[in-house]
Amino acid sequence: MSEREPPDFAMRRAVEVLASIYERKCPPREPTLPPRADAPIVLFNERLALVVGKSTRRDVERELGIAYRYPSAGWHTYCLRIAGERAFLSLFFSDTCLSAAELYRPRTAQAPPLEARDCGFYRLVPGEIGLGMQLLALPEYFTEIPAPPGGSYAQIFATGFPGGSALVMGNDGTIERIAVYVDSSTAPSAQIE
Q: How far apart are CA 166 and CA 183, in angstroms?
């Protein structure tokens, strides 16, 4: 060891002293979770409220009729007319209880040519979030999450709420898909239809 290099124990002690000074001056950091909505978020119109974990398939079929099975087995899809354009309302039930509800404009050529029906304006409430709105109008409890590369949507926003979660997706600043999902830990433990 040369005379210029301090002994190892002195260097370690100096680092410990500096670290303790830093820790005393800086408040401890707690992880910050994204904000959550205080109340359940519902896909709603004046005739039918779609509440994950509560709405039943029977209530939905009483209002909307029998659905088309799309995009895969288990999904029940209706074609709606919203602001003069076709939109799909896809619902997934666990047992007879609603587990997922998505409202979106079909983006693929393989989408079935279902006849659109007028069923009113569906939107997420609270917040009155509907297709075609600007993403900048989202409530503060929605947090942007990274969109997968090459995915259908360039912008994705998410939030949690008691009993579930909600997603809002879009492109070029415009909402093109809204969805609510039941929290899997609170979902009924039943066989998916």
A: 10
Task: Say how far apart CA 83 and CA 99 lie, in whole Å.
Answer: 27
Residues 6+ apart with CB under 8 A from 166: 37, 41, 124, 142, 158, 159, 160, 178, 179, 180, 181
What does the block give as tokens for 136?
A: 């900048």
Q: Does pTM top 0.85 for this prediction?
A: no
Q: What is the DSSP letter of 189?
A: -
Distance from C-alpha of 161 to C-alpha of 42, rounded to nearest angstrom: 10
Tens of pLDDT, residue by residue, the chain (193 residues): 555 555 565 666 666 766 666 666 666 665 555 678 889 999 999 999 999 999 999 999 999 999 999 999 999 999 999 888 899 999 999 989 999 999 999 888 888 888 888 888 899 999 999 999 999 989 999 999 999 988 899 999 999 999 999 999 999 999 999 999 998 654 433 322 2
Q: Which residues contact 25 (CB under 8 A, 6 or more apart)?
A: none
Q: Which of 117, 102, 44 is nearest to 71 (CA)?
A: 102
